[in-house]
Design brief:
The structure is a homodimer.
Chain A lengths: L8 H8 L3 H8 L7 H14 L5 H6 L6 E6 L5 H16 L3 E6 L4 H9 L1 H4 L5 E5 L7 H7 L4 E4 L7 E5 L1 H14 L5 E6 L9 H12 L9 E4 L3 H13 L6 E4 L2 H13 L9 E6 L2 H6 L2 E4 L3 H16 L9 E4 L2 E3 L9
Parallel strand pairs in A: 1-2, 1-3, 3-4, 4-5, 5-11, 6-7, 6-8, 8-9, 9-10
Antiparallel strand pairs in A: 10-12
Chain A binds a DNA duplex through α2 and α4.
DNA sequence: GACAAAATTGTAAGCGCTTACACTTTTGGC
DNA sequence: GCCAAAAGTGTAAGCGCTTACAATTTTGTC
């Protein structure tokens, strides 16, 4: 195949008999272009198979036609689902998806925030997935000027889609308490600097409060959203001497890990210990894991569409909204009455 | 925060007392720059916190500093793992990762190949993950001029990292046959147009051949790499009236789905049916799934590093190599002797 | 030292697009 | 029909970088 010269806006201009400038405006649907011109341009462009150069467009002050998706880790089930759903929506709107995984590492995370100004010239917007923000980071994000949208975040000055995490955790915990358990352990997300300040932890605590129970520090353990982290966390709990009759894991994968460790220690579920998670992972049904179901792909797709909207009308002022999707407790076989 | 003017190469040139051109060369480690100049440039650049503009660099014929990772689907465990591992390596080499999921859809897939020339101007290279190639697609890829590397592919004119799929499938099947099973069913990847021509299917068939057994078409079913696909595939098998005493699934997630359906139908594993997969997914241990373990993240990281090497020396001619990593049969509890 | 060759550095012309501004044409009110 | 306002179109100046090629300096040889 011969390396044919790339089709530029110039070619379109010549073929349509108009100036580059008019072509540029027509292509981007800007005002002040006659219908006739628009038509000619559209025809010429499609005939030539013209695709604007992202680099040139960007350099001249236009858009990069790409957005960054930032996730605490890309391997967890929840993130793989939301990323793919978001990627689809973005792709349909003509945006490339630049994946940035923080790999659950503080250093990577710091690097990301330090490089924001740099990021700002490579993408048009940012989609944050459950990225726990430290003080000042919201400001840094806003300051870099990129439109932002997020999944699973709180009190942020941009559009967010999520579930009511506190409520979901409350549902799970309340379920356990309703079954007569009062010696509970909790796996809390390790993504936040302060484990006991995540919304899910708060929901857990609130449920205990309502039953006049208090949280024992030894029953709280941090875990990432993975099976291995769940395993380790439960093992840690046991090492500490905690012998809860029920465990609430902040996500199903962590709950799977908990099940694994419990079995390794000869503790049977739900006979000795009840376990509940959040997510409704495809394996949860098979394993009989009781959980609080949440729509996952929907969150990614929804947040991506909100971001696209922002990207389309950068000018229009906009009141950021927080969209909460429903969660539902699904009782299965890993939870039962305390004997 | 004040929107300060971006630091350009011009600023570095002025501060270092050299010309833009020399700075450009020094920054890219090109020859014909004195050590002294290199030093001054490096110092000035770091003092100003200079980062080259990807757009300008690209437009002027330089690189985009980003590569595309293309996966048949981004949600499967294997791909989430390899993508993250590759993203890390690429990131460390200064490349952004553009994620492209084919979403297991023929239309998306076709679109991707049709848009290759377009892709070529947005990224510097492509990392293909188990993308089944139709005739002509290899040529299309080569023609677009982008350096390519891949994971899990065969007979391709670029660097590849993978396992010996045929052998892995043979290992799994041989294990089943060795246990006395002769009525086998197989879940084969649906990603290829011809299900019975995937390497894993060939390994399956070869093992049968060696035992003078033949493959019955009703015992072959297509499935994607997901639990749900595995469920459906096994259900389909049962609907067809197949009553195999052992099932080989092309990946662990599909095997999980098989387990699910079997239980729904009152068939117990391994009493009635033996099941074996490939992967060694973190859940497989817990579920007792017999499987052929493969290094997963390693493949993504390795392929990414090979691609980076290609990217560094585009000029140097290069003999593409196929790197095969080892696999290992892990016998657990879902396989046992046929009664 | 003189001079050619080699090494280093600078000049300037783009890369393909956006956009301020100038210019031309159309529209509409009287 | 006339004229100002509105609408449409074109000109040209960059955006920040790469890269021929020209200009300059350094090196090495006799």
């Amino acid at each position: 195949m011969v390396r044919t010269h790339r089709v530029t806006i110039q070619d379109v201009a010549v073929l349509s008999g108009l100036s580059i400038c008019t072509v540029s405006r027509a292509l981007r649907n800007l005002p002040n272009v006659s219908d006739k011109a628009r038509h000619q341009v559209a025809e010429a462009a499609s005939k030539l198979g013209y695709k604007p150069s992202a680099a040139a467009s960007r350099l001249a002050g236009g858009s990069t036609r790409s957005v960054a998706i930032v996730a605490p880790t890309a391997t967890a089930w929840f993130f793989a689902q939301t990323v793919e759903a978001a990627e689809e929506v973005l792709g349909d709107s003509g945006y490339d998806t630049v994946l940035i995984s923080l790999r659950n590492k503080a250093t990577v995370r710091r690097q990301f925030f330090a490089d924001l100004s740099n990021l700002a010239q490579r993408v048009d917007g940012v989609l944050l997935l459950n990225v726990g923000l430290a003080p000042g980071e919201v400001e840094a994000l806003v300051a870099c000027g990129l439109p932002v949208a997020s999944v699973g975040m709180r009190n942020v000055p941009w559009d967010n889609v999520g579930i009511d995490d506190e409520h979901a955790a409350w549902q799970a915990t309340q379920h356990l308490l309703g079954l007569g358990h009062w010696d509970l352990a909790v796996l809390s997300s390790n993504e936040h600097p302060v484990v006991t300040e995540t919304p899910r932890f708060r929901g857990f605590r609130r449920a205990l409060d309502e039953h006049h129970l208090t949280v024992h520090p030894d029953s709280v353990v941090a875990a990432g959203p993975s099976i291995d982290d769940g395993r380790r966390a439960m093992a840690e709990l046991i090492t500490r001497g905690a012998r809860p009759t029920a465990v609430f894991a902040h996500c199903d994968e962590a709950a799977f890990g908990v099940l694994t460790t419990l079995r390794e220690h000869g503790l049977s579920v739900p006979k000795h210990v009840s376990v509940v998670g959040i997510d409704d992972h495809p394996m949860s049904g098979f394993l009989g894991l009781s959980t609080v179901a949440q729509p996952v792909a929907d969150q990614g797709a929804f947040a991506a569409s909100l971001l696209c909207e922002r990207l389309l009308n950068t000018e229009t002022p906009h009141q950021p909204a927080n969209h909460l999707l429903d969660t539902k407790l699904i009782e299965r076989k890993t939870t039962r009455h305390k004997r």
